[in-house]
Amino acid sequence: MKKAAITGIGRYLPENVVTNDMFAKIIDTSDEWITSRTGIKERRISVSENNSVLALNAAKAALQNASVSAEEIDLIIVATMTPDAYFPSTAALVQGQLGAKNATAFDISAACSGFVFALNTATQMIRTGQHKKALVIGSEMVSKLLDWKDRSTCVLFGDGAGAVVLESADEDGVIYSVTGTDGSRPELLLSWALPISNPFGEREEKSRFIQMDGREVFKFATRVIPEIIDNILATNNLTINDIAHIVPHQANYRIIESAAERFNISTDRFYMNLDKCGNTSAASIPIALAEMSDKGLLKKGEYIIIAGFGGGLTWGGSLIRWTK
After folding, report:
1. Which of 7, 51, 69, 73 has the smallest number of CB atoms closer than 10 Å to its CB?
2. CB-based burial of residue 203 (10 Å sphere; 0-12 exposed, 13-18 middle, 19+ buried)?
3. Each residue of 307-322: pLDDT tens digit?
4. pLDDT value at position 314?
5. 65, 120, 252, 279: which is the annotated catalytic residue?
6. Which whole number is the average pLDDT over 39-62?
């Protein structure tokens, strides 16, 4: 079986910065209230660029970083829950704008776990030999789903995109992935799509805004992140000391702090940028990885664990050996 490795990485954030103090002018909240509960200080909110534009710019950055042309890409997978349209897919829009004429393109929807699901899918498709060079993108414009009067949700999220180039390789880069779903409790974190509406029955009235049971989601996240890490370590005969960095979904500082306590390690082992980006859903992990690359934190040969969780409920993680 062939192997797959990350050969390029990129990110893109909208220019518009929204601080906690700016929220305090439109809803009953404060910088202290938001920061103490989440660790978030600011986030990017797009005012003109739709999701496909964010994804496109992250993809261009990743291609440049990998020294790969768009024509060489034969697979594009975009993880998103905030597409420009129901169809065509965000991936198809990116493919067209990139000029990646040789690429099969489709979206994956697994909420904040989406990038892990997409990376795993692309890895398996490369391992079979069906594809050789893939773009895997996590891109979100969560601001489209927010009720700006609901302080329990609107202060948490931001917009942005991150992307990696994944190639067939002699050395295994994406070594192992684990994913899971519990669809029995969708009400804990959801956003409804179009309601039922036709001439033959009464119209359904459901809000499209994000609805979240914060307490229950927090309990779920603090349980599942250690479970993901334990699974990866046990399956690959590793210990936590073998891992250079853990890159979690950037949702809440307290969730990450809880995971660090569970493994008796410093929170410094967990890369965090949520203070500047907020929760960018499926984009959070690749944005963080790209930021780490820019800072020179990713060293060749080191093991990295990525771990995500989100609506569905979904969760997933991957063991990555950095080969770039």
Report:
1. 69
2. exposed
3. 999 999 999 999 999 9
4. 98
5. 279
6. 98
249 catalytic? Reply is yes
Q: Which residue, among 40, 49, 59, 55, has the nearest Cα to 14 in the 3D structure?
A: 49
Residue-wise pLDDT for 270-295, tens only, equals 999 999 999 999 999 999 999 999 99
3-class DSSP string for 58-99: HHHHHHHHHCCCHHHCCEEEEECCCCCCCCCCHHHHHHHHHC
Report whether pLDDT(324) > 90. no
Q: Which amino acid is at 176?
A: Y
Is 154 noted as a catalytic residue in this protein? no
Superfamily in which the 3-170 domain is placed by CATH: Thiolase/Chalcone synthase (3.40.47.10)
Catalytic residue among 50, 57, 249, 252: 249
Q: Which of 112, 131, 245, 277 is catalytic?
A: 112
Domain range annotation of the chain: 3-170, 176-321
